[in-house]
Design brief:
This protein is mainly α. The protein contains eight helices and three strands, in the order ααβββαααααα. The protein is elongated, with a radius of gyration of 27 Å.
């Protein structure tokens, strides 16, 4: 997999910049308590569904409740999902129309992948010999559920594949342009064009 073809989205770049500004450089630095404090929040553990609460008063303070019944990988995965809401969203989800709520959940899922498995850290990891082992390896390194690591791997792979296709298409279009330019024709093609042009002139066809 050619990581040089991967391009980060604006949201992903924003998360990366925040991590680098706060010296979060390796998977070991991804301590959820540290990250919560970094953004102005706290974590509590209760026997209830994981959720986030925040005040829209400009203080940037928030509270993330993590379900205490979850194991550590699932708890970490839930944290990175819930972290998106106070940082990127406004409004009480329970009061929002379903379409807006679904949109926020989709955005939170992407945020979760970017924040839990940062690309700049992935670049520094060794790639397992077999592709099917990559999600399991990332899940182990970042202490996350395998399905989350698998989604992140597929997302990265698809974006690299798309960029590769785009570059190949661009190269093909440029090659067509070069072939269409008479300056790039071979001598035989130039001679055939000259003869065809001469015959047109002989028949009285005017070229403009």
């Amino acid at each position: 997999m050619d990581f040089s073809l991967y391009k980060m989205s604006p949201l992903e770049q924003w998360i990366t910049d925040k991590y680098l500004e706060n010296s979060i450089l390796t998977p070991l630095d991804l301590d959820i308590q540290r990250i919560a404090r970094m953004f102005g929040g706290e974590i509590v553990y209760l026997r209830t569904k994981s959720h986030a609460r925040w005040e829209e008063d400009g203080t940037n303070e928030f509270l993330i409740n993590l379900d205490s019944r979850l194991d550590e990988p699932d708890s970490r995965g839930a944290f990175f999902h819930e972290l998106c809401h106070p940082l990127r969203h406004i409004g009480n989800q329970s009061m929002l129309p379903k379409a807006f709520k679904d949109l926020q959940e989709t955005q939170a899922s992407l945020f979760q992948q970017y924040a839990a498995i940062p690309f700049f850290m992935v670049q520094e990891l060794e790639i397992p010999l077999y592709e099917r082992e990559i999600p399991y390896y990332w899940a182990h390194i970042f202490n996350l559920p395998v399905p989350l690591a698998s989604r992140r791997y597929n997302q990265i792979k698809c974006r690299i594949y798309q960029e590769k296709n785009d570059l190949e298409f661009l190269a093909h279009q440029r090659s067509l342009y070069r072939k269409a330019d008479p300056l790039n024709w071979c001598d035989e093609a130039k001679e055939m064009f000259r003869l065809a042009t001469q015959r047109k002139r002989d028949k009285g066809v005017v070229f403009e």
